[in-house]
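Q: Predict the bound structure with zinc ion.
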Amino acid sequence: MRRIIDFHTHLGDIFHENKSIAFKRPGIVKHPDGFDPFEDLEQSGFTRPLIVPDIEAQNVLIDAGQYRIWDRANIFTTGEIMDKTGISYMVSMPIMPNTSFEEALAASKLDPRFIPFTCPDFDLPDEQMMAKLKKDIALGAKGLKIHPIIQNIEITDQRCEAPIKLFGELDMPISYHCGVNDYYKADSPYLSLTNLNYGALDYTFKLLKKFPDYVIIPAHGGGSCGGELEALAEAVKKNGYKNVYVEMSHRGAADIVKSVELFGEDRVMFATDWPFDTCDCNIKCAEEALGGDPVALDKYFYRNAARILHLNF
Ligand SMILES: [Zn+2]
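A: Predicted complex:
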């Protein structure tokens, strides 16, 4: 039977509105507007980057993203999408202070298909932040997630360094958001709590220079605004980095083929950034890209992620 690990998903409200939705049935917050640019992108087969022409379109995109989280990032809708699409496991990535390891862990106890990651709590003093991460690993955290934009911190900041070293030295995967994406409209009270420039790929180049051997997964293949995948591949090739992996959320068949060519079939993984992608389209794109090569498809869907997650199932 086909096995699929989705390497990038979210549970709960990752945004600063911090709605308590992770364990509630959907329907609490409904999208008031019919047009959903994420759906539009999906229907195109992810044949274009996740960028919009103007502020108005950007506001529509921001709203749609928030409503996707509020309506779908709960254990019920997420469980249903796994049933429907045949996804075996979802790596659940918390973003502190809005969603926590505890939510991902609780979800994994209720439904073992959730694979919990943890995220540093930068509100704690360094020593406590590190003690918490060590405790999370003991409790079952399988990797580290940082969101430089939403958490308002450069991935190369010295406060990120100790968590990255902790997971890196344990040969555990480290993933962080990449891509210069807006999360808040100009009039939002939360805009000042985020810094979209922290999604730029330059930070990744600096990080990889410092930690060339750790298992690092810059999310969205380095970013989904256009051109990041190729730039990342060039840096990886030039410097001979062996442990940089890419996941293909928001990317279609052509990019999957290209990524396998650029990074090799052992370094590319299936991901949806659920609930921002709706999973079945991502699966179709993978079949289109790699369907002729069952070994490469199995590596893409399952084996590469299972290896770096040290899963024994
Ligand atoms: Zn994400």
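A: The chain has a mean pLDDT of 95.
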